[in-house]
Amino acid sequence: MLNKMKNMKNFMWKMFAILALPAFLGSCGLSSSKGELTGVPGRRPWYHPQPFGTVYVPTGTFHMGSTEQDIINSLTARPKQVSIQAFYMDDTEITNNEYRQFVYWVRDSIVRTTLEYMTDGDVPRVDWKKKLSYDDKEVTDAISGLMYSQADQVGIKNSFDWRKMKYDYKRMDLQKAAALDNKLNPKPRKDFIIEKKADIYPDTLCWIRDFAYSYNDPMAQTYFWHPGYDDYPVVGVSWEQANAFCWWRTNYLNSYYEEQSDPEVNAFRLPTEAEWEYAARGGRKFSPYPWGGPYMRNSRGCFLANFKPLRGDYISDGGFYPVKVTAYFPNDYGLYCMAGNVAEWTSSAYDPSIYTQVDDMNPDYNYEAKDDDPPSLKAKVIRGGSWKDVAYFCNTSTRAYEYQDTAKSYVGFRCVMTFMGRSQKDK
C-alpha cells in the first residue's frame, strides 16, 4: 500500500511538470507563435538615430566625373553613372575643438591607466568617474614620464610630450576575410584583425614645412590649440590619423549606446571618393560647383568659397588662411565648404584610371598600404580644393591626392556613417 501511494505521488509530480512546461515555454514567448514562423519575439522597433552635427544625404544616382572640358587633358575623371547608398555626413569639416576632444580623451585615458585608475572586474577598464586633476603635484609627479624633460622645456610651464601619446585600436580587414582564398581555406579570425597605433596630435610644423621662404610661424604656434581657432578646420592630420579619429568616434558613441542597452550603429569613417562627390553636388545634376552655377561668384560679385582667386589675391574672397567652417553658404544638402577652405581626405586610394574599373554601385577603390610600400601605393584621394588652390581644384569632379602618411596645412576631413535602411522617411 505504501509503495502504491509513493508511485501515485511520483506520477502526480510528473504530470504537473508536463502540464506546467507549455505554460513556462509560453511565458518565454517560444510557443506564442502557435506553431507559425513569426521571428524572435520581444525585439523593439528601432530607427536610425542621427549623429549630432551631421546631415542626411539620401540614396541616389548621379553622373560621377567631369562634366566640363578637361583643360589639362588628365583623363582621370571620365563620366560614369553610379548609385550611392544613403549616409550621414558631418555638415562641416572637423574643427580644431572637435579634434581636440579626441586628443584630450586619449591623453586622459593614458594618464588614468598610468595612475591605475581602473574599474574592478574580469576586464578592467579606465575609470572615468574618478576625479583627475592636473594641478595635483602627486599626479604630475606620477606622470612625469609623459611630460617633456627639463632640457626640452620652453618657458616655465611643463607640458605633455605629445609624441608619446598614441591611439591603439583594432579593426577587421573585411576585404581580406571575404577573399575567395579564405572561403576555400578558412583561416583563424585573428588573421584578419589589423592592429593600428596612430599619433594623435596634429603636425603643427606643417605650416612651415609646406611653404619655403614664407613666414607662417604664428600659425604653427597657435592654430590648433588657441580658442580663437576653435571653429576652424583641423589641419596637419594625416590620412592615418583621420582614420584613427573615426574609429575613436565610433567607439565613443557605441559605448554610450551600450550603457543605454541600445543597439550599436555603423562605424564612422572617411567618405569614399564617390560619396564625397555625390554629397558635394547637393542633388544638382552636372553642376561644376556645390552651389550649382558655373562661376565662383554670386550675382553680387561676391566669392562663394575660400580659395586662391585672381592670380593670387588671397584676401578678395574674405579669407587668407583657412576660415571658420561655416563661413560660406551650405549646398542644398546643408553641407558647408564642400569647395575651398581645406581639401578633404577620402577613404579611396588614388589611381588615375580607376573610374573604368570600379562598380556602379557604391564604387570604391581601397588599398591598405604598408609602411614599406612605395609612395605610389600610399596615394589617397583628396577632394574640394583649399584656401591655397585655384578654382579648378574647387570643382566637384576634380581629383587630387596626397600621401597617407603625410600631413598638410591645407588638408582636413569630415566623417560619414552609412544609413541603415532604405530611407530616413521610412518611419
Explain this structure to me?
With 427 residues, this protein is an alpha+beta fold. It has a domain at 58-94 and 268-427: paralog of FGE (formylglycine-generating enzyme) (Alpha-Beta Complex). Helices cover 23% and strands 12% of the residues. It is built from nine helices and eleven strands. The strands form four sheets. The chain has a four-stranded mixed sheet. Strands 1-4-11 form a three-stranded antiparallel sheet, with no helix packed on it. The protein has a two-stranded antiparallel ribbon with strand order 2-3. The longest helix is centred in the first third of the chain and has 26 residues, at 2-27. The relative contact order is 0.16.
